[in-house]
């Protein structure tokens, strides 16, 4: 008889109603967190505050970030009752990776450039393009982590549904 290492069944969301119930409050908290991220994007509409957007248009860029964070927040709420479709994950992961690609040079310059590394500059308004692009890069990383957590939950719940059938 062959033995494999696996977590105990009671710790697996795919086999435990307790774990499924546990993820409802976690999803609500994470949804709230992404809604807060979206709310903070309203400041970036002001071109005097937001000097170096990814798309050279502060209004469009901040609106896209607000929408992006809000969609991820709504997806966490949706996931409490229903499974998210596969196309959502494809689009969200592409959006995260695209933003990481666009803002990556700013992070690179911030880390390895001549000026010292900073995430804040003189204030929370990113007058230094490196600062704003670094924040955008890490915002995309956080969003990607959220989307991958959603994907993990959906995979576990689909596995649970298959084992019940």
Primary descriptors:
165 residues, mainly alpha, 4 helices, 67% helix, elongated
Explain this structure.
- The chain is an all-alpha fold.
- It has one domain (19-164).
- It is 67% helix and 0% strand.
- The chain has 4 helices and no strands.
- The protein has helices at 17-40, 58-81, 86-112, 129-164.
- The longest helix is centred in the C-terminal third of the chain and has 36 residues, at 129-164.
- It starts with 16 loop residues before the first helix and ends with a helix.
Brief characterization of the structure:
With 165 residues, this protein is an all-alpha fold. It contains four helices and no strands.
Estimate nothing, just give the exact number of structural domains: 1
Order of helices and strands: HHHH
Count of helical regions: 4
Proportion of residues in extended strands: under 5%
Count the beta strands. 0
